[in-house]
Amino acid sequence: MDAYLNIISLRAVRDYTGQPLAEQELERILQAGRVAGSAGNRQPWTFVAITDRATLDKLAEVVYEPDNLRGAAVAVAVVVRTVNQGFDAGRASENMMLAAWAGGIGSSPNGLREREPAHTILSVPTDHYIANLITFGYPKKPRRVSDTTPEGLLARVKRKPLSELVRRI
To answer: How far apart are the first and last CA of the chain?
Structure first.
């Protein structure tokens, strides 16, 4: 898929088939996160890849949208040392989501309703911070974007127009 089309067509997927991801697909996603840019090339993140069904079900109890985790093949927690490293964590997260989407795999970021239990479930040290918890899986309703153009997609998306978002000086 064209890189620009991949970026502008990315949407959260919250309903998955349950089909497991191949190990090479998961590694491709994690590699995309690993190589993301970061301030001063500090690479402040570690990733916890969760494929164990019982662990995903436990995590489902501490997020805002539990069904998203219950149906996912994989979840990845992006862990940093401080909340201030959230921007870099976001860069790694977006890289992983885009790499997944390019391979036909959907993803969705998940907000943690309860942080302490999530840290316990994933054995994350108390002096660290789970910046993002992203689910991955094959979408139940695959999106067909390869048969469209960027211009066609931009004309259809439900987003504010640039004229409302950009001020030029």
So the answer is: 34
